[in-house]
Amino acid sequence: MRFAFYGRVSTEDYQDPVTSRDRQRGQAETLVAGFGRITAEFFDVGESRVLPWARRTRAAALVLAMADPDRSFDAVVVGEYERAFYGNQFSLMAPLFEHYGVQLWLPEAGGRVDFHAEGHERLMVALGVQSKREIARTRMRVMTAMAAQVRAQGRYQGGRPPYGYRLADAGPHPNRAHAAWGRRAHRLEPDPQTAPIVRWMFAQRLAGQSLARIARTLNDMQVPCPSAADPQRNAHRSGDGWALTTVRSILANPRYTGREVWNRQPSAHDLIDPGNTGLGHRQVQRRGLPDDWAISERPVHEALVSEADFVAVQGIHARRGRSDRAYLLAGLLRCGLCERRLESCWANGRAAYRCRHGHTSASRPDPRRPKNLYVREDLLLARLPALYLLLTTDPADLPETQAPGVEDVIGYLHARRIELVYDPRTRSLRADLPGTARVIVDRRAG
Fold it and tell me: What pLDDT shows up at residue 320?
């Protein structure tokens, strides 16, 4: 028989792909000895077992080769079950092997897997559960150990140092084996260039300055933003300048109090396609609640702000809008120039909407930017009944149709997720119907 060997190694940094490949292939050759020889090889490097075959480079190539009637193999042999399957992946792949008439050989089955034998089916289910449990148990052990190291020892767990700090040597690695290999531990220390900026930002916020004012001042002083100050560690950032969100994240980071903090953005796993669970999950990061953070019991590096001042800064919030002001069209309007959503604003004692075309008070205005768009709400409300008739009736029936009330029209737009686009050049109001190319325009000047 002709066999195709499939193997996999998870990482290149912590595993030797050459040694792992030789070990797996040796097990596979021992299994098929006397029955045939290996004529093709598919070996994934740097691919996790949790990924389905369709998302592994070489495993996907093997599936494509199986579909070829002129393939160079009759069966697939795997050196170790966990290298190929995880969880319920075997049950998803078994019908594919049967469909293409390709046998599967595993050491755990003693050779060929019988897809219809009850004993083999139970064995594969048990191996899948064991493979999944191994990953879950390892992940839990690592996460709990890292949290304990941060709380009790204040150990730095890696990653980019926050703006205002740089990495410093903290002596030999606490693990004696790693220390013997020459690995060093790290800690945070203030960066002479950026630490004064962080101190200044906290002082400005305590003095009552808004986040936008702080960002605007930093941009006016041409202070490099975090991604520009350390471009090697922030290659995924543009480095264009300070933004309001950047200032907010710095002022909300408790590591500036001198305590080590970990797990502020834990990893989660979301289904790629809920309609096709066989595609597996993708890893995403979300901000966690403070109760889930691991915080060192004592300060472990030099603080840039006192804990009292940090807590005081967290209690400063922008004044919310007045509750007696209502905006009926909030969330329904977009700008006809830049397609941005219009902001609600109060102008000359009445509700209105505006678009600044991407400009924020954190930076100076661009002279090439169009003028700010302002449109009164009452002018738009007066045109809604006629626009509603254009959306729901035939134009020939307009004279006999009674126009509905404004509240009915707004409810209709929300229910059908219809957005209104106001173009200041023609003063026209356009309704975009979702899921279709149909557009209704009320061209009367407003």
Answer: 55
Q: Provide the residue type at 210 as one letter.
A: S
Cα separation, 358 vs 338, whole angstroms: 8
- CA 388 from chain centre, in angstroms, equals 39
> Do residues 113 and 125 lie in contact, with contact meaning Cβ atoms separated by under 8 Å?
no
For 232-271, the DSSP string reads: TTTTTS------HHHHHHHHT-GGGGT--EE-SS-EEEEE
Domain range summary for the chain, segments of one domain joined by +: 2-134, 165-171+188-260+296-314, 333-442
Residue 192 is predicted with a pLDDT of: 94
- Rounded to 5 degrees, what are φ and ψ at 419? -100, 145
CATH class as words, domain 2-134: alpha beta
Give the tens place of pLDDT for each residue, 72-120. Answer: 999 999 999 988 998 888 988 999 999 999 999 999 989 999 998 888 9
Q: What CATH number should be reported for the domain whose range is 165-171+188-260+296-314?
A: 3.90.1750.20
- The average pLDDT across 310-329 equals 77
Q: Locate 215 and state its tokens.
A: 């960002």
Q: Which amino acid is at 94?
A: A
DSSP letter assigned to residue 297: S
pLDDT band at 323 (very low <50, low <70, confident <90, very high): low
Torsion of CA 289, 294, 296, 301, to 10 degrees: -80
